[in-house]
């Protein structure tokens, strides 16, 4: 009988060589477009890399921060068709309301005033790049037309850039407006409170505050990283003096100031509207913070609606440094508590 044959076991598969290329997870910081070298990095290289992305980890003393824009100028649009005829809102969408002939003149006058302000202390003939302006503008027709009128006062070499920013648009009153119904709504807003009253299908000033908060954080981040005014290289030319101009709407600009300076709802509701084509200037003081009292007088700020407490804070802002806190203003004790003697 033939011997039974057995199948020889198959030889064990040789281990597959490990690929030197591994799939790596990339965190959101990699999307900035700056390649990050992780593999075989020395501890010193890793520390430098961390300090690049996280400035707070840099050893003291910190390197000098990028220069801040010297001014943030708030501009309200010129006189619009809706300012002279509220019936225009019943026929034309709010974003398409344009300027009147007077509004166009106000925009050009505003541009000339801005040019005088931004060029003060500079010689256009000698300092080609000594100062520049960067514009933010609401996407509404009346603000875009105001921007074009303002821009007539500036040469192309003075304009660093323009960004259309929907977050600084007008308060939304709810699509096409019924004139009589809107009159009733505005009376209800007067009784309810200007900040919290929400128009049907529209916004309250509190809603505007929420989107302005996001814009303010974007603006602060851009200022802090030097997006508008990068530091000049050692031995290179001095960076130009940068100025930011926000072309927007009356309530939106008041909400922007409220958010920037941490004013209360009651303080906001005491503010007046800027005139059409009017401006308000936030300018860096001795320490580098933005204060309304660097350019404006106390009487001008009182007329705008600032209280004594708010003006005292602006005086502090005029000499304070970024990162410092005005504890006397932030605690605001007497405004909230009544049991102090």
TrEMBL record:
SUPFAM superfamilies: Phosphoglycerate mutase-like (SSF53254). Residues 1-20, 37-64 are annotated as: Disordered. InterPro entries: His_Pase_superF_clade-1, His_PPase_superfam, PG/BPGM_mutase_AS, PGM-Related. Residues 1-16 have a biased composition (Low complexity). One of its GO terms (molecular function) is phosphatase activity. It comes from the Eukaryota. Signal peptide: none annotated. This is Phosphoglycerate mutase-like protein AT74H. It comes from Hordeum vulgare subsp. vulgare (Domesticated barley). The gene is LOC123399421.
């Amino acid at each position: 009988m033939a011997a039974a044959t057995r199948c020889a076991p198959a030889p064990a598969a040789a281990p597959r060589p490990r690929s030197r290329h591994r799939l790596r997870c990339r965190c959101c910081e990699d999307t900035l477009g700056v390649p990050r070298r992780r593999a075989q990095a020395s501890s010193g290289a890793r520390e430098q890399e961390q300090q690049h992305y996280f400035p707070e980890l840099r050893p003291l003393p910190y390197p000098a921060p990028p220069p801040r824009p010297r001014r943030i100028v708030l501009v309200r649009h010129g006189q619009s068709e809706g300012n002279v005829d509220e019936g225009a809102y019943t026929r034309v969408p709010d974003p398409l309301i344009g300027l009147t002939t007077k509004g166009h003149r106000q925009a050009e006058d505003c541009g000339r005033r801005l040019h005088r302000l931004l060029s003060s202390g500079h010689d256009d003939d000698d300092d080609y790049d000594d100062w520049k302006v960067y514009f933010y503008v609401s996407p509404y027709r009346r603000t875009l037309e105001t921007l074009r009128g303002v821009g007539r006062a500036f040469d192309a070499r003075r304009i660093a850039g323009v960004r259309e920013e929907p977050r600084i648009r007008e308060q939304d009153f709810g699509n096409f407006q019924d004139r009589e119904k809107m009159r009733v709504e505005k009376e209800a807003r007067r009784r309810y409170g200007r900040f919290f009253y929400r128009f049907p299908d529209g916004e309250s000033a509190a809603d505007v505050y929420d989107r302005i908060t996001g814009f303010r954080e974007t603006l602060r981040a851009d200022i802090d990283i030097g997006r508008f005014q990068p530091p000049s290289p050692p031995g290179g030319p001095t960076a130009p003096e940068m100025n930011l101009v926000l072309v927007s709407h009356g309530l939106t600009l008041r909400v922007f100031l409220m958010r920037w300076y941490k004013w209360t709802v009651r303080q906001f509701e005491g503010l007046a509207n800027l005139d059409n084509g009017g401006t308000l200037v936030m300018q860096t003081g001795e320490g580098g913070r933005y204060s309304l009292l660097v350019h404006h007088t106390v009487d001008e700020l009182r007329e705008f609606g600032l209280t004594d407490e708010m003006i005292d804070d602006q005086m502090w802002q005029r000499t304070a440094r970024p990162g410092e806190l005005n504890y006397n203003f932030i605690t605001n004790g007497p405004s909230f508590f009544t049991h102090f003697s």
